[in-house]
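[INFO] parsing input record for Alpha-hydroxy-acid oxidizing protein
[DEBUG] input buffer:
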Amino acid sequence: MAPLNVEDFRILARRRLPRGMFEYVDRGTEDEVGLRSVHSGLEQVKLRPRVLNDVSAPDTSTVVLGDALPMPVIVSPTAVAGLLWHDGEVQLARAARRAGIPFCVATQSMTTMEEIAERAPGANLWFQLYVFEDRKIGWQLLERAKALGIRNLLFTVDTARSPKKEWNTRNGFGIPIQPSLVGAMDLLVHPRWTLSVMARYMLTTGIPVYAHYPPEYLTRMTRASAMPNVKLARKLTWDDVDEVRRRWDGNLVIKGVMDREDAQQAVLRGADGIVVSCHGGRNLDASPPALQVLPGIADAVGHKLTVLADSGIRRGSHIAKFLACGARAVLVGRAPLYGMAASGEQGAHAVLEILREELDHCMAFTGHGSLDTITRDVIAREC
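[DEBUG] output buffer:
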């Protein structure tokens, strides 16, 4: 039977991928309290059913930063997409293009933004920026993005340290990839992935690298970089936001905002949008879920900039919950990765179509013909 939901694709991805790689995508950090909170928080929010409204053709379209989208979804930047399927970033960009929604290219992509643009012509590409210890590397990436005509920059600011993922150490997987007996056995028991992805890279372009690093800093995924210049900046301040704003004349969206005062500061620094995000439970394990803090942040700044949100979305009803709490649209990361890991572009597009259809159903059951009417009143309150 064909997969019917995101969880079905997740199960297929788990079967196909080496365990270490699947868990790198799927799991959280430390005790995974934050990850469980993301999922339980979404489950606990209930929506109010309404009847006898005209929901014959719910309109799932919206406008985000000037772009008309057929549904309020953006495909998130993810660092390992190119390892889940051969040319994974290109597959995701094509799937997003078919769905009519943006795909955000990651700084740590294994395919350059230029190649993605060439091989997925017509795709609505955003670019995600991490700032390195050597700031010049990031500024060069901004120039490359501008040269491609990319208008939307997603500046990720919530990763001041590498999260502690103990299970990665135990299962022999990490970025950069380190050879180990556990890892080798993992590859042997997943021959489909080993042959169709890693062997294919080895026979064509070689072992994948972080494609956006300057040539002098490129390192194989099997070797840790000896150059501190290409490590993510440990000191990241609002001065860096000011510098990015000065250098970027397109839309600037700050990703990783979880505090009302930070959101207000983003307004003052000239941001066009923010992403309320707990990084999917992958960074601070003690963080509240994004959905919990979203209403207060949206109330504070939603009339001044575009509020987006992410973390944990696996159902169309989850999208509706984020919209009801104040988001204009959502970013989805793991869900399309599961689809792509199962069957490439087709799987990623199928996941996006499932989310669109489920959102349509959720709107019908709650009596809403357009996204604009999905407000805080949609959320059911206990007596």
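[INFO] Residues 255 and 314 are 20 Å apart (CA to CA).
[INFO] shutting down worker
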